[in-house]
Amino acid sequence: MNNNLEVQYCSLLRAILDDGKVSEGRNAVTSSIFGHQLKYYVGDKFPVPLMRKLYPKGVIGEMAAFLRGPKTVQDFEIEGCNYWKQWAKPDGSLNVDYGNKWIDFGGVNQLENVISDLQLNPHSRRHLISGWDPTNIAKSSLPCCHYAYQFYVTQHGELNMVWIQRSIDVMIGLPSDIMLANMFIILVAYLTNLKPGAVTMQLGDCHIYGDHAFGAIEYLARAERYSDRVTNPESFYPVYELQMITDYKEFNNDSFRVTTWDQLDSISFKLHA
């Protein structure tokens, strides 16, 4: 397996910039390609794109909110995640299937069932969580972008995960979702006494917003300048620490730490709601 996330991410940027279809989207002009896959290994590292500054603390808070079934902006902000207010109603309420459908989809706690089944029947082909509820799309504050997660146990006791996503803002959203996917597989592996293995991200509409193009070009220019980070990214990845917990409900913004690593300067991108 090609574990070089940096090469894969840069290849995706080039494919969109060179061959993407330009169209007027829901919220801005984008250039996009459809149907792309990233596959990388986690283990004891925390793989991330390396050519710009990232902010894992907010993503940790986002995961903590998801695991509690968020209903308001405050549910995110109390955990240190401060970018959900733009999708909320004036009273701060949110209707999102992220997290909520993981723990209550028609009365079924999918996450709890998967954790239990991974322990009792690890080689089942039914370790699946779905967040896509067609009955709620029209009412949702933001329909799920990533919406399905399947887990698989290897013969060596490693936990692999397939992550399926319908739409992805490649410059802002994808780096954050890579961090979120890392946390998801690490958490489930920890709670099932397995080792985090490979993440496969199956991506639908992969797009770069028109006003993000210069930032994407700058990212690729940095990849040329910092070629050691491209050829040997594992040496630059941070590592993680997960506080001892016994249940996913205990996860909060103090439970998970990503160690400080040698980051490059930030590249500014406007967030499109």
Layout of helices and strands:
Blueprint: H1 5-19, E1 21-24, E2 29-41, H2 56-66, H3 73-77, H4 100-103, H5 110-120, E3 128-130, E4 146-153, E5 158-169, H6 173-191, E6 195-209, H7 213-225, H8 227-231, E7 240-242, E8 256-258
Parallel strand pairs: 5-6
Antiparallel strand pairs: 1-2, 2-6, 3-4, 4-5, 7-8
Helix pairs in contact: 1-7, 2-6
Q: What general form does the structure show?
A: globular
| Spatial strand arrangement across the major sheet | 1-2-6-5-4-3
Estimate nothing, just give the exact number of structural domains.
1
Number of separate strands = 8
Parts with pLDDT < 50 across at least 5 consecutive residues:
none
| Topology-level CATH name | Thymidylate Synthase, Chain A
CATH class: Alpha Beta
Q: Give the helix level as a range of percent.
A: 25-40%
Distance between the termini: 35 Å
Strand count, sense and barrel status of the largest sheet are: 6 strands, mixed
Order of helices and strands: HEEHHHHEEEHEHHEE
- CATH homologous superfamily title: Thymidylate synthase/dCMP hydroxymethylase domain
Using the CA coordinates, give the radius of gyration: 18 Å
CATH architecture: 2-Layer Sandwich
Which structural category fits the helices and strands?
alpha+beta
